[in-house]
């Protein structure tokens, strides 16, 4: 059976570990690697986009990282319970024309007993920034 450690129920330490693993995976910008953290039938809301299934997650991320160049992400644990984790995050990226952005957001995650994410709800706002304002280098 497919598992992704640490498994719920989460403690403070394992919730922090799960968040760091997610940050590291997303910073790899490897859609296949990232998608393996989710159930086959995962359900996402990412901004106003609704995504269903691991394969759709992978396709979404492939498109995302073709558009969002020089991507760098930082996640922080906000709260946790038995099988749920809430994070705040920010990431910086550059578009094809060279404009930098910082995205701010919150995510709510729900995991199955095998540590795979079943649900991900993300609210995200983008802010254009000058290159000199970058914090995530």
TrEMBL record:
Coiled-coil residue windows: none
Database matches in SUPFAM superfamilies: NTF2-like (SSF54427)
Pfam entry (one): DUF1348
Name of the protein: DUF4440 domain-containing protein
Species of the source: Pedobacter steynii
């Amino acid at each position: 059976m497919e598992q992704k450690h640490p498994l719920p129920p989460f403690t403070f330490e394992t919730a922090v570990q799960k968040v760091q693993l997610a940050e590291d995976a997303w910073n790899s910008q490897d859609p296949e690697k990232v998608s393996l953290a989710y159930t086959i039938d995962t359900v996402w809301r990412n901004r106003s986009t609704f995504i269903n299934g691991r394969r759709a997650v992978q396709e979404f991320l492939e498109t995302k990282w073709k558009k969002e160049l020089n991507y760098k992400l930082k996640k922080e644990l906000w709260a946790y319970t038995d099988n749920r984790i809430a994070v705040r995050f920010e990431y910086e990226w550059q578009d094809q024309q060279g404009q930098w952005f910082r995205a701010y957001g919150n995510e709510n995650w729900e995991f199955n007993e095998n540590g795979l994410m079943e649900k991900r709800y993300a609210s995200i706002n983008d802010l254009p920034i000058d290159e000199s304002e970058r914090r995530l280098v």
